[in-house]
Specification:
- The protein is built from 18 helices and no strands.
- It is an all-alpha fold.
């Protein structure tokens, strides 16, 4: 059972990461195309609108996340009836959340018609249509979240990754076509919203066929069930608010203070570094169901060792990403955007702080959430988000856009960082975190890989930038892996065993149509 939990999570991570990387490869062409067709300012406005939608996502109030945890715990009890009961009630709550989103969007548009707009949108009347489109997309996302949460709770996150990934690819490809045909950013957003809808419909049909027992008619007026979802949702809601505030603070702060045209100078390097952290974040998200099921079954030793292993993977993947990012990131972004955007060293440090701190905080939050032991951590994350918003605005105003990441990191260290560390030890005891010597070894490997990549890049520039970047990246990766193996950072035997389990899982999952077969 222990191996099955990790093999399911690994399978889901592979699917999500594969689609994520496919989308990023498409973005290599899409983003510079957007910058050249709709313009840097309009692209920055689109990013700002999508960041603002994170605030409207508060209408969910953490309920979808809470329903996923309840489904995972019911799966640990092997209770299909409870899962169907949860799904029915979460559908009602999702519709209410979506209705609230549309109501707020309507209010914002009415205010805009009177000339009252938020500071980051002042002087940009075209943003009204963009907000309306984003609001409809968010409404659809909340409704389809019921099915995605069902897959996640049953440790079948690979289906969520499949349909969400297909929607993302369709949205990017269709957005490029819309930008080419219309030169209007609103059409780009409209096509992306349609892609989200199509991906969601496909997921609903699949879930209905695969797990028909989860959609059987029944009581949907159980107030005790609503209270249970609200109780867990409230804790998740505080995390959601904090995360949203922290994640959107740099984008909104830069847009409001420096201007929308400066936003891509932050978001593009953030996207680039996020490539390396994508498997980390996907793995930790997909492990929620496994943690929740194991916690409910009383298998605390597995939870402890699995979480420690997850953090080690985060160290290794993150270390490799940071090594290549600092060595090659600036030239890559200039090549990527045809010279329109570059990365200053200060901005590179800022972005690395945001991505790294966010990944490790999320890992701890996913663990505590899966065990429904995250009340204090939720409050700390809420304070973290508010403090991050304040610090980012102040620091960006004083020092410029590059200081946004410093504000995010400072807020996290003063709030969520130490609270999550303390609560995990309180719940699981010692041995949940990698030893300091492992952190030191990872830093050694990171420095070695980064220095070699930088040197090779400098030596091979005469052969062309693409050739130089590719050669330097290969050299850096090889040196990093060699350093990790020599220091015994990577347990090769465990990794090979997990891959074998993944192969068996792939072979077994495709023909299954019933939940008990997938278990």
């Amino acid at each position: 059972m222990r191996v099955k939990r990790e093999s399911r999570a690994l399978y889901s991570t592979v699917v999500v990461t594969a689609f994520g990387y496919a989308a990023q490869v498409l973005s290599l062409f899409a983003i510079p195309f957007f910058l050249g067709t709709v313009g840097t300012e309009d692209y920055g406005l689109m990013v700002t609108v999508m960041a603002f939608m994170g605030y409207l996502n508060f209408a969910d109030a953490g309920l979808s996340w809470g329903s996923m945890i309840l489904i995972a715990q019911a799966a640990g009890r092997d209770s299909r009836g409870d899962i169907a009961h949860i799904v029915r009630h979460s559908a009602v709550l999702a519709f209410c959340s979506g209705f609230l989103v549309l109501s707020v969007v309507g209010g914002l548009l009415m205010c805009a018609s009177e000339g009252w707009r938020l500071p980051m949108f002042t002087g940009h009347p075209k943003v009204d249509l963009m907000v309306a489109i984003a609001g409809v997309q968010l409404f659809a996302t909340l409704q389809f979240g019921i099915v995605y949460n069902l897959f996640q709770g049953l440790q079948e996150g690979y289906w969520t990754g499949l349909y969400a990934g297909i929607a993302r690819l369709l949205g990017l490809g269709g957005g490029v076509l819309a930008a080419w045909l219309t030169r209007e950013v609103a059409w780009v957003m409209a096509v992306q919203a349609v892609a989200v809808f199509l991906g969601g419909i496909a997921a609903v049909v699949h879930a209905w066929i695969r797990h028909p027992w989860a959609f059987v008619p029944g009581d949907w007026m159980d107030w005790a069930q609503y209270r249970a979802q609200f109780q867990i949702g409230l804790k998740n809601f505080m995390i959601q608010i904090g995360r949203t505030l922290g994640a959107t603070a740099p984008t909104l702060g830069i847009s409001a203070i420096v201007g929308p045209a400066a936003v891509p100078f932050y978001t593009l390097p953030l996207t680039l570094l996020g490539l390396f952290f994508m498997p980390i974040n996907s793995w930790n998200a997909n492990m929620q169901g496994a943690y929740g099921e194991a916690w409910t079954a009383g298998d605390l030793d597995w939870v402890r060792s699995a979480f420690r292993g997850s953090l080690m993977r985060a160290l290794i993947f993150g270390g490799l990403g940071l090594a290549l990012f600092f060595a090659l990131g600036s030239d890559f972004v200039q090549l990527w955007t045809h010279g329109r955007i570059d990365i200053e060293p200060a901005m590179a440090i800022s972005v690395s702080l945001v991505v790294t701190v966010g990944a490790f905080l999320a890992a701890g939050q996913y663990l505590l959430t899966s065990m429904n032991r995250h009340g204090v951590a939720s409050a700390a994350e809420l304070v973290n988000g508010v403090l991050a918003l304040i610090l980012v605005v102040v620091l960006v105003k004083w020092f410029g856009a590059w200081a946004a990441g410093v504000g995010v990191m400072a807020a996290a260290l003063m709030t969520s960082g130490w609270v999550i560390h303390r609560d995990i030890i309180r719940q699981l005891g010692a041995g949940c975190f990698p030893a300091p010597v492992a952190v030191g070894k990872t830093i050694v490997a990171m420095v070695a890989g980064g220095v070699v990549a930088w040197v090779v890049h400098g030596v091979t520039k005469g052969g062309g930038l693409i050739y130089s970047l590719l050669s330097a990246a290969i050299a850096g990766v090889c040196v990093f892996i060699a350093a990790a193996l020599l220091q015994k950072l990577v347990p090769v035997g465990d990794a090979l065993n997990l891959v074998r389990q993944l192969g068996r899982r792939v072979g077994a999952i495709l023909p299954t149509t019933r939940w008990n077969q997938s278990q």
